[in-house]
Amino acid sequence: MENGRRIAFDYGAVRIGVAMSDLSGLLASPQENFSSQSPELFSEIAIFIDEYQPLYIVVGNPRHLSGVASAKSESVLEFIAGLKQITNVPIYLLDERLTTVSGARELREAGVSSRAAKNHIDAAAAVTILESAMNQERLQGAPAKDLA
Predict the structure, then answer these.
(1) Per-residue pLDDT of the chain (148 residues; tens, 9 = 90+)
(2) Domain YqgF/RNase H-like, which positions (predicted)?
(3) What are the backbone angles phi and psi of residue 46, rounded to the nearest 5°?
(4) What are the chain's domains?
(5) C-alpha span between 37 and 50 (Å, rounded)
(6) Among 103, 106, 143, 109, CA closest to 123
(7) Most buried among 15, 38, 40, 139, by the most CB within 10 A?
(8) 127 within 8 A of 24, measured Cβ to Cβ
(9) Side-chain half-sphere exposure of 138, counting CA atoms within 13 A
(10) Separation of alpha carbons 8 and 50, rounded Å
(11) 111 bridge partner residues
(12) What stretches of the chain show up as alpha helix (H) in DSSP?
């Protein structure tokens, strides 16, 4: 795998969970969430991207368990369109089914109260998305099939 950071976003109507890898692409760590409602959202994300210079960005693609796109999918595509306005970094769309559930379970197992978890669940979901992308990159040479 190429050396460099990778970033994942878990888009939500209130918060956008963020995860970033180490330079080797082995570990994914939660980062500070962005507020989806911020009028400066894309400026803030541009600064973050410029600071860390990722090899690629992965955005979770919300689908129903059946595989059909969810109502949230349209918002995610609008978010990706905004990202494309601020960066030339490749952006991949990755199936995110059950990542929020998985993130919540991991926080619960770590002893984080459900009240405190509210602020961390989106970043935990982004970690799950990024770990999945990095596993796929190791196995198939690319983080996802779908380049956004």
Answers:
(1) 899 999 999 999 999 999 999 999 999 999 999 999 999 999 999 999 999 999 999 999 886 455 555 567 889 999 999 999 999 999 999 987 654 555 455 555 656 555 555 667 889 999 999 999 999 999 998 887 767 6
(2) 4-103
(3) -60, -40
(4) 6-147 (3.30.420.140)
(5) 21
(6) 103
(7) 15
(8) no
(9) 10
(10) 15
(11) none
(12) 41-52, 73-86, 99-109, 114-117, 121-140
The amino acid present at 48, given as its one-letter code, is F
Contact between 129 and 99 under an 8 Å Cβ cutoff? The reply is yes
Q: Describe the crossing of helices 121-140 and 99-109 by its angle, rounded to 10 degrees.
A: 110
Please report which helix (H) or strand (E) contains residue 119, including its range: none
Q: In which residue are the tokens 């939660």 written?
A: 30
Q: What is the 3-state secondary structure (H, E, C) of 22-43?
A: CCCCCCEEECCCEECCCCCHHH
Q: In a 3-state reduction of DSSP, which class is residue 55?
A: coil
Secondary structure class of 16 (helix, strand, coil): strand
Distance CA 143, CA 88 (A): 17
* pLDDT for the residue 65: 52
By the 8 A CB rule, do 23 and 44 touch?
Answer: no
DSSP 143: S
